Amino acid sequence: MKKRYLNLTKFLILTLLPFSGYAQETNLTQYVKPLIGTAKMGHTFPGATVPFGAVQLSPETDTIPYAVNGQYTGDVYKYCAGYQYDDPTIVGFSHTHFSGTGHSDLGDILVMPTQGKVQLNPGTADRPQDGYRSPYSHDNETAEANYYKVKLDKHNILAELTTSARVGMHRYTFPASDQSHLILDLTSGIYNYDGKNVWTFVRVLNDSTITGFRQTNGWARTRTVYFAIKTSKPFKNYGAKYLDKNVQYKGFWRKFNQEDNFPDLAAHNIKMHLDFDTKEGEQIMMKVALSPVSQKNALENLQAETPNWNFEEVVSKGKADWNKELQKFKVEMLNKEDLVNFYTSVYHANLMPTVYMDVNGEYKGLDQEVHKAEGFTNYTSFSLWDTFRAFHPWLNLVDPKRNADMVASMMAHQQQSALNMLPIWSHYANENWCMSGYHSVSVVVDAIKKGVYKGDAEAALNACVQTATVRRYEGIGDYMDLGYVPDDRNGTSVSNTLEYAYDDWCIAQLAEKLGKTEIATEFNKRAQNWKNLYDERIGFMRPKDSKGVFREKFDVLDTHGQGFIEGNTWNYSLYVPHQPMELMETMGGQKRFENYLDSLFTMHLPDKYFEKTEDITREGIIGNYVHGNEPSHHVAYLYNMTNSPWKAQERVRQIIRNQYHNGPAGLGGNDDCGQMSAWYLFSSLGFYPVAPGETMYWLGSPLVKSAEIQLENGKTLKVIAKNQSEKNVYVSKVLWNGKELLGYKISHDDISKGGELQFVMSSKKRKG
């Protein structure tokens, strides 16, 4: 009786206690909310995937084309991830997605369960009855790590999705009908347009197995996805429809009715239906395996990763994979909302890049030949303009083996490139040349300097130098000759110059490490090129033509047509992360620099300066500081060089509270393949890599009350924020292993060996 009384008392105490904000549970996926960022400009997807998995099985909510009659369709931008939270219908479930990007592709092999008359047209959002799409309600939608569920209201069908690394598994619960179908749409895609499908091929091997491929010409111009499909129940019939325009010569295939149970299908555009009889509540499952190489490899991937039909087992294994990543971090936060943001950020920072090789190690290279990854896992989809800043440095700290494999993948890319260049923005055996700079250089150098990449450092340096000297690439020839990219020859001349200068500094760092004096001298000189575009008369970076004359008509607040990409000169003038002290002196010293930063965060930016910018809304801006675009991500930490370092702490905490929330609209801009999330994670822990390639982190204001990070080397990094609260955003003292740390920096070498980083928090500003 006494024991029962004690247990009851313990239960009552626990239930009455306030939330502790401490994540000590083994199932940390409960704090992952994949719907965060699925509204407005976050461009995340809510569907099922495993960490860095090749399959991202997720719903599409509309079919807006990239262009109509040759004209760009602006609304398509909302669908970079295929899903928008506010849409009322679901079109289907496809197997490949980008997370948080500002441009898109993919959306391969869309599947949709239906009943009744076969409909191969998706219909429209306002008339879903005209096609195979279905209305749905968020009340009947569940999005978790590696599990997605939704009720499709049109025919009362329950859809459930899960994945392994290379296989998407579907489970559909049907009402009774002799007209149940699985629609297989090989024409559907994200950022779709007439002619995007180069070719599709389907072979029906038996009444439950299909293989094929889809080749597209989009952002990646020669992207081919091979697939293998199995159904848990034989289909009683199947059919296809070709949507090709008139072809002048078709040979003699007209001898067959290729639309009815014909097993050998080939055309630019194919849609299929698989037909079943179903009992009330009957479940039909489908497995879709992908391969970059062949149908045979797709079948091998399917058998290796999902040999049976145990849906719950696949869900459970995927959740275990996620928990393995999440359990590297044991954090105590101020509230549950912060725990959700922290672990969802870890989740979003483990989605891309994605594995790009089959279970046998084969993948298609940039040269369109089949290669085998020897000694590393090959990855694809490198959004380097975004991710060099914090995402790859984050991996160098918490997942170094994986980042080493990513560097090895970049080196393989360079060896297969016809231009012998490291990747700019690559995916699926293609280089799409998106954004500026050659920031793979930053990733490679940072990984070598931090001891993460163990490959041939001299070969890496040569690859960096080769990449930085391809004169035909976006103004590099002029940059090498003039010391800047001229405005009359390039529309993003200033941002290109600034980003090249930083990358060149990275090359110089590696050259110095390897004792290559001549290369170091050359690239240290190039690293100073930012000075050539600073106009001291106005105090900003400014476009200059090939004759050395600054542009006369110049708007310092405008993002468009002023020589920059995704930013105005107020933000980009601070983009000299490698030489910030020199920048501060150039801009007039500490006081003037501090005033500049103050103005950036407090001024008002009129709507006209961003209302035509696709990826930024008012929510992503603080003053004129644009957190939703990456070039400013280091800016708050620059206060550490001034007489008011407490402002760095204040601004970092302000950005965290302003730009990251629970809920579908919880991100202030594109998550950009984990970069926004990596910024949050670093900043929540109290430090940030202002200049990757430098092995120092700059200190800010931690959000955590405490954190334990299990490092790959077996060591533990502890972060403690003493006196942490909403009001105590300022840091009065920092201790590393009990010794006071001065200078607002800490080295990677120190924290990567484990230890305790303690911040003493206060509501009072510490001067100096």
Automatic annotation (TrEMBL):
The cofactor required is:
Ca(2+)
Key word Glycosyltransferase present: no
Query: Which NCBIfam families does the UniProt record give?
Result: aman2_put (TIGR01180)
The protein's matches in SUPFAM superfamilies, at most eight in alphabetical order, are given as: Six-hairpin glycosidases
Under the heading Gene3D superfamilies, the entry gives: 2.70.98.10, alpha-1,2-mannosidase, alpha-1,2-mannosidases domains, GH92 mannosidase domain
**Highest taxon of the lineage:** Bacteria
Q: GO terms for molecular function, please?
A: hydrolase activity
Q: Which InterPro entries match?
A: 6-hairpin_glycosidase_sf (IPR008928), GH-type_carb-bd (IPR014718), GH92_a_mannosidase_put (IPR005887), GH92_N (IPR041371), Glyco_hydro_92 (IPR012939), PNGase (IPR050883)
What protein am I looking at?
A: GH92 family glycosyl hydrolase
Species name = Sphingobacterium daejeonense
Q: Where is the Glycosyl hydrolase family 92 N-terminal domain?
A: 31-291
User: Is the keyword Calcium assigned to this protein?
Assistant: yes
Pfam families (alphabetical): Glyco_hydro_92, Glyco_hydro_92N
Which residue intervals define the domain Glycosyl hydrolase family in the entry?
Answer: 297-762
Give UniProt keywords alphabetically: Calcium, Hydrolase, Signal
Complex and partners: Monomer.
Q: For this UniProt entry, which residues form the secretion signal?
A: 1-23
